[in-house]
Structures are given as structure tokens and as C-alpha cells.
């Protein structure tokens, strides 16, 4: 689908939503209406959900439909000729981007303890971020080459999730394709404070899994998860091996603090593409709410890959992310992120040539970033995210400005519309 066609499609959607809202207001003011044909849609558009968001589609049917449009622009002060922001794989170019046109089709699992129910969910995403949610065996071939989306294209289509779920609010089992439980940041734009992404999100772990995952809410404080998956981001690959996935989370009374430990381990491709060796990655997330308006998040991650180095031996990567948030008004929230990621052997961080990024690894050393931003909600459906970010690298090579600099400064603006 061309960018021009996509722009026209989005404009039509927004016009339709605006027209629909205007008609609903006219009817509520006493204008002519057909209650049998339109009252259900009008009532649903005027009635916000539990988060105050007005949905374009009714949410009380057998299957709910909702989603968002997310996009933005990043200015790179170093002005790289390639327009790539160094060795990124998310928000990686200083050009306007439609990051996510995201649709969710789901049937929530609402059964309470003692009863059993069946639910499910399918996510469909078109946009610049498609590259992050592809799976071997679906959007890519088993060997990792492109199937649905051509190499180097800016926009593509992906299915980040497609699973069935059985159980209740106490215990449930998810089967199919789902987002990983490893790490702090994630793919869906509405779940992240910052427009730019941490190195831990981009390079340290998986994005999705195919397999099964059980969740047991032991009580209101303790949650356990465990499952078996086909490794990182794969339905089908050149060697099928099962990986274990598990997490434990404890939440203190009154949500004062919480602590979560998650781990994934199994065989993954080593430095020799046809050879699979053990890869393990864990993440530790501590969240605290020391005061009503404040939130602090500490995220530590560590991973290793047997035979991950080109010359043999174990490759390791690890780091720490710190997040501090402050809500200074009902519509305004400020955030700060300080990150350090160490790529010991230069096996993880690097621009992907499939994406067309010339900033290729290895970059053995430590990556640092400092991000400051705001979240502003002029309406429950609309989120604006301005951000300023500084990156710098401690190592022998220069990963920024197409190999000329060891640091860079970015300024970005992002907008998100839920429907």
C-alpha cells in the first residue's frame, strides 16, 4: 500500500469519526434520528470506557474492536546523510513516520473463579514499526528472510498477536502468538511513556513468542506465569526447539511497590547461523510509588548466548534502565529515562541491513542514553509525546552520524489517537 493511499485512508477515517461524533451530538440535542438503526452506535460513542476513552466501535458485542493511530517525527541534530539515528531498529530515522495503525479484535476472558470461559485476541498492525513484530514462519521465512514485506521497505503489515485463552480471572492458559513477558517497554505505542525506545527494548530480548503460557493469580499480591514457547519471535525456524518462559510478581499493599522477575531460556541461533546453542535472558523490574504523583521504575536485564561470539565463546549483554515519572496536572505527566546497556562482544547492537541501516555492528562497548519527555492528553483519546534524547557510546568505534560520532542529540514529537 503506498504512503499516499495510506494518508488518504487515515484522513477518511478521521473525517468519518468526526462526522459520526457530530451526528451523535445533534441527536442528543433533539435532532431527528432513527433509534432502531443508530441509537446503539450513538450511545456507545458518547459513553466512555473505564479509561475515559470514546470508542469508534461498540464494545459490548461478542467481539470488541478498538485500536489507535500513532506517528511522529524525530530531528537528529548531527544530520546524518543516511537519515538513520545510529544503530537503532525503532524510531530509527529522522523522517516523518506513521509508526502504528493498530487494530485489536478480542473477546475478553471475564469468567470469575469457579467458572470457566473462553476468550481470544488478534492484533493487526500496519506501519513503520512492522519490522519489530515479525515472526519467522509467518511474516518471515523459517530462515529469517522476508516473506510478506520486502527488504528495505518503510511500511509493512504484521500480526503481533493471535491467541486463544481459556480459564478465568484466577487461572488461565493462553495458546498461540503473544507478546513476551520479558522486559519493561513493549511494542504497543499506548503502553510506553516515551516515543523513542530503550536499547534494552530494541536489542536485549524477544518481542513475541509462539506457544503456551499459563497465568495463576495466586492472590491479590502474587502472580505466577509459566509456559513453553518456540524460542524468540518464531513460529517456524530452521531448528525447532522448546524454550521455557516464567515470571513471578509480588505487589505490596496499596500498590506501594512491586517486584517482578522474568526469564526465558532455550536454544537460539549462535554466531554460526545453522548452529543453535543455549541463550538465557532475565529481567528484574522494581516499581515504586513513593508519593501520590510520583512513580519510579528500575529495570535490570542480563543475557548470555553460548557460542555467541564470532571467534567462539559466550556472548553477554546486560544493563540498567531507570524511569522517573511525575504527574503535575490531570492532563500532564513528565518523565525521565536514564539507561546503560553493555554489549560486551558487540553481538547485539547494530543497524539491520534489511532495514537499510548502514550503521552496522559490531559495537563492543557500553551504550548510554538520557531521555526527558512529556505526556499531554488534551482529550482522553489523544496523547502528545514531545521528547529530547541524548545518546553516547563508550567503545572503540563510532556508532552515530554514519560512523563519524560517538554521540548524538535527538528531539521528537509524537501523537497517538485511540479509537
Structure write-up:
The protein has 419 residues and is mainly β. It has two domains: 47 residues, no CATH class; 363 residues, Porin, CATH 2.40.160. Helix content is 10%, strand content 44%. The protein has a 17-stranded antiparallel sheet that branches. β6 and β7 form a beta hairpin. α1 crosses α2. The longest helix is centred in the N-terminal third of the chain and has 26 residues. The protein is globular.
Q: What is the number of helices?
A: 3
CATH superfamily of the largest domain: Porin
Indicate the overall shape: globular
| Average pLDDT taken over every residue | 89
Question: What secondary-structure arrangement, pairings included, does this model have?
Answer:
Blueprint: H1 3-28, H2 35-46, E1 64-76, E2 97-107, E3 117-127, E4 156-167, E5 171-179, H3 199-203, E6 208-217, E7 222-229, E8 243-251, E9 257-269, E10 276-288, E11 294-305, E12 315-326, E13 332-343, E14 365-379, E15 382-384, E16 387-395, E17 407-418
Antiparallel strand pairs: 1-2, 1-17, 2-3, 3-4, 4-5, 5-6, 6-7, 7-8, 8-9, 9-10, 10-11, 11-12, 12-13, 13-14, 14-15, 14-16, 15-17, 16-17
Helix pairs in contact: 1-2
What is shown here, in short?
The chain is 10% helix and 44% strand. The chain is mainly beta. Helix 1 packs across helix 2 (35-46).
Amino acid at each position: 500500500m503506498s504512503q499516499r493511499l495510506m494518508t488518504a485512508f487515515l484522513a477518511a477515517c478521521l473525517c468519518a469519526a468526526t462526522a459520526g461524533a457530530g451526528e451523535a451530538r445533534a441527536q442528543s440535542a433533539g435532532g431527528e434520528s432513527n433509534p432502531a438503526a443508530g441509537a446503539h452506535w450513538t450511545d456507545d460513542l458518547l459513553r466512555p470506557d473505564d479509561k475515559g476513552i470514546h470508542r469508534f466501535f461498540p464494545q459490548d458485542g461478542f467481539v470488541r474492536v478498538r485500536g489507535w493511530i500513532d506517528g511522529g517525527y524525530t530531528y537528529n541534530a548531527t544530520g546524518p546523510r543516511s537519515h538513520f539515528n545510529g544503530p537503532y531498529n525503532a524510531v530509527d530515522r529522522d523522517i516523518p513516520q506513521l509508526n502504528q495503525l493498530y487494530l485489536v479484535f478480542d473477546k475478553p476472558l471475564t469468567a470469575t473463579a469457579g467458572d470457566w470461559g473462553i476468550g481470544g485476541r488478534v492484533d493487526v498492525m500496519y506501519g513503520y514499526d512492522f519490522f519489530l513484530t515479525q515472526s519467522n514462519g509467518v511474516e518471515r521465512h523459517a530462515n529469517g528472510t522476508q516473506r510478506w514485506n520486502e527488504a528495505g521497505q518503510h511500511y509493512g503489515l504484521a500480526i503481533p498477536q493471535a491467541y486463544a485463552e481459556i480459564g478465568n480471572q484466577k487461572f488461565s492458559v493462553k495458546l498461540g502468538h503473544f507478546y513476551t513477558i520479558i522486559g519493561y517497554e513493549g511494542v504497543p505505542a499506548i503502553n510506553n511513556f516515551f516515543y523513542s525506545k530503550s536499547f534494552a527494548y530494541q536489542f536485549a530480548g524477544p518481542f513475541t513468542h509462539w506457544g503456551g503460557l499459563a497465568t495463576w493469580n495466586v492472590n491479590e499480591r502474587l502472580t505466577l506465569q509459566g509456559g513453553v514457547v518456540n524460542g524468540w519471535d518464531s513460529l517456524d525456524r530452521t531448528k525447532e526447539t522448546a524454550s521455557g518462559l516464567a515470571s513471578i510478581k509480588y505487589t505490596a499493599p496499596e500498590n506501594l511497590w512491586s517486584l517482578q522477575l522474568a526469564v526465558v531460556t532455550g536454544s537460539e541461533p549462535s554466531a554460526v547461523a545453522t548452529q543453535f546453542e543455549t541463550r538465557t535472558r532475565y529481567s528484574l523490574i522494581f516499581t515504586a510509588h513513593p508519593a501520590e504523583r510520583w512513580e519510579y521504575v528500575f529495570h535490570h536485564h542480563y543475557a548470555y548466548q553460548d557460542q555467541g561470539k564470532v571467534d567462539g565463546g559466550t556472548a553477554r549483554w546486560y544493563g540498567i534502565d531507570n524511569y522517573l515519572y511525575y504527574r503535575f496536572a490531570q492532563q500532564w505527566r513528565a518523565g525521565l529515562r536514564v539507561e546503560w546497556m553493555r554489549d560486551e562482544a558487540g553481538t547485539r547492537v547494530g543497524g539491520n541491513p534489511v532495514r537499510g541501516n548502514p550503521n552496522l555492528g559490531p559495537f563492543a562497548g557500553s551504550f548510554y542514553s538520557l531521555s526527558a519527555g512529556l505526556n499531554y492528553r488534551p482529550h482522553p483519546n489523544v496523547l502528545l509525546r514531545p521528547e529530547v534524547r541524548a545518546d553516547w557510546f563508550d567503545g572503540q568505534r563510532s556508532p552515530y552520524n554514519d560512523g563519524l560520532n560517538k554521540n548524538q542529540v535527538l528531539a521528537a514529537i509524537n501523537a497517538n489517537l485511540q479509537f
